[in-house]
C-alpha cells in the first residue's frame, strides 16, 4: 500500500524546491543590489495581479481575455502536436525499420532538424494563407523532429532476436509491425512525445511573439512592450502550467500502455 502523501519524501522535496525558488526570486528582487533585478515584480505582486478581480494591467483569472489567450495557445499546441504524432511516428518507424528508406530520409531530416523554429517564421508566413496556419506549422516542426528521432531510436533499440524469431515463425510485415516494432519502440515513442509536447510549447511561444494577435506568447510580448512586468510573469507561469499538464497527461497514458507492453512480453504476472 502506497504511503500517504504527507509521508512521501518526494512530495516534500518537490515543494521545498518550489519554496526555494520563490524565496530566491523575492530575495533577488528585493535585496540584490542590481538595478535590473530591482525593476522586476516580486512574487506577491504577481500573485496579487493574477488573482485580482480588478487587475491593474487587465489580465487575471477573472478576465475573459486571459482565457482567450490560453485557448488560442492550447488549440495551436494541440494541433501541432497531433500533426507531429500522425506524421512523425510513422516516419520514425519506417526509418528505423527499413534501411533503404532510412538512407533516403535520414539525410534530409538531419539537415532540417537543426534549423531553429524562428528561422521558419518568415518562410511560413510567405507560404501559408493566414498567420494561424503559419504559427501552427512552426510549432509543428519542432515537435515533429523530436517525435521522429525518438521513434527511430526506439525501433533501432529493439533486440534483433525478436525480428529473427518473427521471421522464423512466418510473420508477415504487418504482424512484425504490430507485435514487435510498436510494443518494442513504445517507451522511446512516449519519451519522444513528452519532449515533443514541451518543445511545441516552447516554439509556440516564440512564434506567437512574432506572428500572432492572440496567445500566451503574444500576451508576454505585448506586456513587455507596454512595460507590464507582472503580466509577463503571469504569461510565463501559465505556459509552464499548460506544458506541465500536457506532458503529465502523455506520461500517464504512456505508463498505462507500458503495463500493456510488459504483460505482452510476459514481464508481469
- Characterize the quaternary organization of these chains: single chain
Q: Count of helices?
A: 11
Number of strands: 0
CATH class value of the largest domain: Mainly Alpha
**Gyration radius, in Å:** 23 Å
Q: If you average the pLDDT, what whole number results?
A: 86
- Write down the overall geometry: globular
Report strand %: under 5%
Cα distance spanning the termini: 18 Å
Give a quick account of the main beta sheet: strands, pairing sense, barrel closure: none
Q: What sequence of helices (H) and strands (E) makes up the elements?
A: HHHHHHHHHHH
Q: What is the number of domains? A: 2
Q: What would you give as the CATH superfamily of the largest domain?
A: MetI-like
What is the structural class? mainly alpha
Uncertain residue ranges: none
Judging by the overall fold, what is the CATH architecture of the largest domain?
Orthogonal Bundle
Helix content: over 70%
CATH topology of the largest domain: MetI-like fold
Amino acid at each position: 500500500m502506497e504511503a500517504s502523501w504527507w509521508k512521501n519524501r518526494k512530495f516534500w522535496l518537490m515543494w521545498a524546491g518550489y519554496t526555494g525558488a520563490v524565496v530566491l526570486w523575492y530575495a533577488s528582487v528585493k535585496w540584490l543590489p542590481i538595478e535590473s533585478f530591482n525593476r522586476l515584480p516580486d512574487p506577491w505582486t504577481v500573485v496579487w495581479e493574477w488573482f485580482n478581480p480588478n487587475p491593474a494591467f487587465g489580465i487575471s483569472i477573472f478576465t475573459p481575455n486571459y482565457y482567450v489567450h490560453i485557448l488560442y495557445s492550447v488549440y495551436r499546441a494541440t494541433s501541432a502536436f497531433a500533426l507531429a504524432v500522425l506524421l512523425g511516428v510513422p516516419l520514425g518507424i519506417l526509418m528505423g525499420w527499413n534501411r533503404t528508406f532510412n538512407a533516403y530520409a535520414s539525410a534530409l531530416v538531419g539537415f532540417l532538424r537543426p534549423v531553429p523554429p524562428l528561422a521558419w517564421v518568415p518562410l511560413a508566413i510567405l507560404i501559408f494563407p493566414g498567420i494561424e496556419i503559419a504559427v501552427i506549422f512552426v510549432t509543428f516542426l519542432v515537435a515533429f523532429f523530436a517525435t521522429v528521432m525518438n521513434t527511430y531510436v526506439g525501433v533501432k533499440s529493439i533486440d534483433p532476436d525478436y525480428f529473427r524469431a518473427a521471421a522464423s515463425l512466418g510473420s508477415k510485415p504487418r504482424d512484425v509491425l504490430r507485435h514487435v516494432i510498436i510494443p518494442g519502440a513504445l517507451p522511446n515513442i512516449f519519451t519522444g512525445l513528452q519532449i515533443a509536447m514541451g518543445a511545441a510549447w516552447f516554439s509556440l511561444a516564440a512564434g506567437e511573439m512574432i506572428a500572432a494577435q492572440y496567445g500566451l506568447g503574444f500576451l508576454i510580448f505585448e506586456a513587455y512592450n507596454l512595460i507590464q512586468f507582472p503580466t509577463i510573469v503571469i504569461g510565463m507561469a501559465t505556459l509552464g502550467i499548460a506544458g506541465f499538464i500536457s506532458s503529465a497527461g502523455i506520461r500517464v497514458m504512456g505508463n498505462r500502455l507500458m503495463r500493456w507492453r510488459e504483460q505482452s512480453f510476459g514481464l508481469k504476472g
